[in-house]
Amino acid sequence: MSEANAALITRFYLAFQRLDADAMAACYSDDVVFSDPAFGTLRGKDAGDMWRMMASRAKDFSLRFDHVHARDTTGAAHWVPTYLFSATGRVVVNNIHARFVFRDGKICEHHDHFDFWRWSRQALGVKGLLLGWSPLLKGKVRQQALKSLRAFQAGRA
User: What values do phi and psi take at 124, rounded to 5?
Assistant: First the structure.
């Protein structure tokens, strides 16, 4: 099972490299729980739609991943996306560690961890440098990310 789960993680990131969000979402269970510092916690369809939104808006995007490993029910990977942050036009290189939980051959939990302050300095410039450590800025970014996701979902309906 651990080989199959490692292959599932690899399939997920290879799809991401192609910006194939439907293939990414197909790796998830219907009740998946996703979390990261920017979006907070997303469940089910929202997680797949977040990747669809991200892929549809990606500019100057590349992704590398490594350190994929998995056991029967858990796994992990390291990935580094490079992209143009659309809100500011600034280049971001994010260093992300992902943890996974598997059930019935699918990813049922996906938790991404990254240094929000480092990300905010790159994405937001001086504002991120000065306020990226604060819960206030993290809350504003999360609020905007969720607002963008809801607008994207409304446009797909």
Answer: -110, -5
3-state secondary structure of 77: strand
- Mean pLDDT over 32-50 rounds to 97
Buried b (16+ CB within 10 A) or exposed e, 59-93: eeeebebeebebeeeebbbebebebebeeeeeebe
Give the fold, CATH level 3, of 2-156: Nuclear Transport Factor 2; Chain: A, (3.10.450)
Beta strands in 1-157 (DSSP E): 28-36, 40-43, 62-70, 74-85, 90-93, 96-103, 106-113
**pLDDT at 118 exceeding the cut of 70:** yes
* Residue type for position 138: K
- Please work out, in degrees rounded to the nearest 5, the angle formed at the alpha carbon of residue 99 by the alpha carbons of 9 and 15: 30
**Confidence class for position 1, pLDDT limits 50, 70, 90:** low
**Which pLDDT tens digit goes with each residue over 60-70?**
999 999 999 99
Q: Has this prediction a pTM greater than 0.85? A: yes
